[in-house]
Specification:
InterPro entries (chain A): TusA-like, TusA-like_sf
CATH topology of chain A: Translation Initiation Factor IF3
Number of helices of chain B: 10
Order of helices and strands of chain A: EHEHEE
CATH superfamily of chain A: TusA-like domain
Radius of gyration of chain B: 21 Å
Number of domains of chain A: 1
Distance between the termini of chain A: 16 Å
Strand order of the largest sheet of chain B: 1-7-6-5-4-2-3
Strand order of the largest sheet of chain A: 1-2-4-3
Number of domains of chain B: 2
Strand content of chain B: 5-15%
Helix content of chain A: 25-40%
Number of strands of chain A: 4
CATH architecture of chain A: 2-Layer Sandwich
CATH topology of the largest domain in chain B: Aspartate Aminotransferase, domain 2
Cofactor (chain B): pyridoxal 5'-phosphate
Order of helices and strands of chain B: HHEHEHEEHEEEHHEEHHEH
Pfam families (chain A): TusA
CATH class of the largest domain in chain B: Alpha Beta
Oligomer: heterodimer
Number of strands of chain B: 10
Structural class of chain A: alpha+beta
Strand content of chain A: 25-35%
Shape of chain A: globular
Chain lengths: 68, 357
């Protein structure tokens, strides 16, 4: 799984990183986003809703995003 | 009518009548109304008239009103005054203001989730306790269907947070305490109104000696000015419908011109003068700065604009995007042309920011 390390970055940078990474993969492929920004979880879930992708929290600082 | 060109923040200048009244009140209302002297007697009389007017304007009884010099303390007094022990369950909405959440956490807190429309997502509750009920949310303007919610908590006492609007018709038919804020009717800051309907249950939760239910440390001149602002506010309710139309105009313009935008709540079930927009891939603080340069001052719930760098708990609880957030409060006197200009500034600023990313 492709890994995107956005640790140390603040919103909206992790979401922008995530969107750029997901744009480069095929439908059904997942990426792993690493982020320690407290806004990432709520914003990732909102981003997934708005862009029709899926996102789940793996741990406090890692999230799996799958392109629909 | 208050002229507030460019100001779309929560705060607004004093109503001109309230400003004039404030200066006069400092001349006439300087004495302590509790002491024995002719000036104190005059101050006492002015205070009583003020209480009567507030009671009338807010559909309350004058004997259930207490005045606070620190409105935020009112949240604690309103809720904790109804709690019978440290183990009392305090039910609160996930989108409640932080003072309410902090108070709940000093007892046995129970957070109530909301859906993406900001409505409480709950079932019937048979547990006793205190329900901290917000009448309308200050960040999104979303109004709570108070009577429907209260029916779900038949064994709870009800502490209402009415600090976002002086519209007493939004209170539920059953409630035990309520807190209002002078700032919500363009009165001076530093004046809160605590209404204690259930005086048999409510007890002063602060350390105290004597029979006073709350600290009497408010400014009488500010109270007198606040009363004038409230009377002016209530005398021009038709303005509220116009502000609602302006909000609809702005929401439609933004929604039809900007992609990937979250608008919190439906206008039909919100206060007519508050709108919250979140723009994907935009930086909230930079957006505020850009709009300020263009002459428009707004608020934001984005993490980068808060003191503790935490995202808005209100937007997060609803599942609304927290970054790139701006909050527009439309004050009385704002024109349709100003809303058009604001809309243009927002659209251009968002496009400019996204192009840079």
């Amino acid at each position: 799984m492709k890994e995107v390390d956005s640790r140390g970055k603040r919103c909206p940078a992790p979401i922008i990183d995530c969107a750029a990474a997901i744009a480069s993969v095929e439908s059904g492929v997942s990426i792993l986003l690493l982020s320690d920004d407290p806004a990432t979880l709520p914003d990732l879930l909102a981003w997934a809703r708005m862009t029709n992708n899926s996102a789940i929290k793996i741990s406090e600082e890692s999230f799996q995003i799958t392109k629909k | 009518m208050v002229r507030v060109t460019g100001n779309f923040r929560k705060e607004s200048p004093l109503h001109p009548k309230a400003e004039a009244a404030l200066l006069a009140a400092f001349d006439a209302g300087w004495a302590d109304p509790r002491k024995l002297s002719s000036s104190s007697s005059k101050a006492h009389h002015m205070r009583q008239e003020a209480l009567e007017s507030i009671a009338h304007q807010l559909s309350l009884r004058s004997d259930e009103i207490e005045i606070l010099g620190e409105p935020l303390l009112g949240h604690y007094l309103s809720i904790a005054g109804l709690a019978t022990s440290p183990k009392t369950k305090i039910f609160y909405c996930a989108t409640s203001r932080s003072e309410v959440i902090a108070t709940a956490r000093s007892f046995d807190p129970v957070e109530l989730p909301v859906d993406i429309r900001g409505n409480l997502d709950i079932a019937q509750n048979s547990q006793p306790g205190v329900l901290a009920l917000q009448i309308a949310n200050g960040e999104t303007g979303i109004i709570t269907a108070t009577d429907e919610v209260v029916k779900l908590f038949p064994d709870c006492l009800i502490a209402c947070d009415a600090t976002t609007t002086p519209d007493a018709s939004l209170l539920p038919s059953r409630w035990d305490s309520a807190i209002f804020d002078s700032g919500s009717w363009a009165g001076p800051s530093g004046i809160g109104i605590l209404a204690i309907r259930n005086s048999k249950v409510w007890k002063n939760p602060l350390p105290h000696i004597g029979i006073s239910r709350v600290p009497q440390s408010y400014s009488l001149p500010l109270l007198l000015s606040s009363v004038v602002a409230l009377e002016a506010w209530k005398s021009d309710l038709s303005e509220d419908m116009r502000l609602r139309d302006l909000s609809a105009q702005l929401r439609l313009r933004i929604a039809s011109s900007v992609s990937d935008c979250d608008i919190a709540g439906e206008l039909d079930s919100s206060l007519g003068n508050i709108s919250s927009f979140s723009f994907l891939y935009c930086h909230g603080e930079e957006l505020l700065r850009e709009l300020s340069i263009r002459g428009f001052d707004l608020d934001s719930g984005s993490a980068c604009t808060s003191d503790d760098l935490a995202p808005s708990h209100v937007l997060a609880a609803m599942g609304i995007l927290t970054h790139g957030n701006i909050r527009v409060t439309i004050h009385r006197g704002t024109t349709s042309d100003e809303i058009e200009e604001l809309g243009t500034a927002i659209i251009e600023s968002v496009a400019q920011m996204r192009a840079r990313n």
